[in-house]
Amino acid sequence: MKKLFIYLFILLSLFSLVACNGSNESEIIATSYIGYDFTRAIVKDTLNVKMITPAGTDFHHFEPTSKDLISIKKAEVFIYLGIEYDSWLNNEETLKTYVNKDALVISLSSFHVETEEEHTHEENHHDHVHGEHFWTDPMEAVHMIEALTESLIIKYPEHETTFNENSLSYINKLTLAVEAFENDLNEIQNKTIYYTGHMALEGFAEHFGLDIHALENTYQPGTDLTSEDLKAFVNEMKLNQIKFLFKEELATNNTAKTIETLLGYELTVYELHGYHTVTKTDFNQGITYHDLLLRNINYIKEALQNG
Q1: Which residues form a coiled coil (predicted)?
Q2: How far apart are CA 249 and CA 23, in angstroms?
């Protein structure tokens, strides 16, 4: 009887360990919402995917916990946006110390082909250019999904058919949304919108032929705003009798309220999402890049058609 209890205890312990490992360990770790969403769309239920940057957290200032670092070390695949974005990685040599030696490491920024204009701007100004926010262009997102799918198939060849089918399905949804918006914009003359954030949507604007006037006239987020910048922005809105305003995701309405006060009239305020991160509510509801793209499109159409 005593031996029976011992065997039962051992079996229960083993089952507990297997259950814990199966439910808590993620085969794929993504540092950003972009990497998480695209990977999730490709693999769906075949593999576990985890985003280590908590929803609702500013991606630019994220620092991993010791628990995050353990998860990264155990991951079979590590997907990051790029050293220039995931600043906590510091450099390629530091990155190597964080990941498992057998892990597939994917930099999403490596899928972006820099244009001559972007390269020249970087050399002259050493700041973010729209190429560094390339994911805001939905057709760049399509290219990333295609390249990411190929990389994951190399790691998991047994899932090639499933990954290709899932990838194509997601790409088709994005492409249809883009084509529909392009057709709608053909009927709209004024494509200028005013935005209280930094210049993080140049790729999006360029693809659709939009003119986004950013209050923070810089590619670096969180830049101190001068009173002259604010005054010029407000004067331009007043001159053009603008009745709507866009803000960054996660941003408060404080800046918009200040602008309303200076204008002397109320504004309709919309969110223009740069896909850096998502709120906890959106994340828990399974929001996708495609969903956010449609949200951006609907807000822009409403503003331009009624403004």
Answers
A1: none
A2: 31
Mean pLDDT score of the chain: 86
pLDDT in the model for residue 1 = 47
Annotate 162-180 with b (16+ C-beta within 10 A) or e (fewer).
bbeebbeebbebbeebbee
**pTM summary value:** 0.85
Q: Does domain 19-177 have CATH number 1.25.40.10?
A: no
Q: Which residues of 258-275 are buried (b: 16+ CB within 10 A; e: fewer)?
A: ebbeebeeebebbbbbbb
Residue found under tokens 């200076």? 262
pLDDT of residue 15: 37
Note the CATH number of domain 180-306. 3.40.50.1980
Ordered DSSP codes for 100-164: -TTSEEEEGGGG----HHHHHHHHHH-S--GGGGGGGSHHHHHHHHHHHHHHHHHH-GGGHHHHH
Per-residue pLDDT, averaged over 74-81, amounts to 97
223 band by pLDDT with thresholds 50, 70 and 90:
low
Nearest to 181 by CA among 301, 304, 306: 301
CATH 3.40.50.1980-classified regions of the chain: 19-177, 180-306
Residue identified by tokens 């922005």 is 233
Q: Can you tell me the mean pLDDT for 107-128? A: 62
pLDDT of amino acid 138: 96
DSSP alpha helix (H) spans, the chain: 2-24, 33-43, 66-74, 92-98, 116-125, 138-155, 160-185, 202-208, 227-239, 254-263, 280-284, 289-306
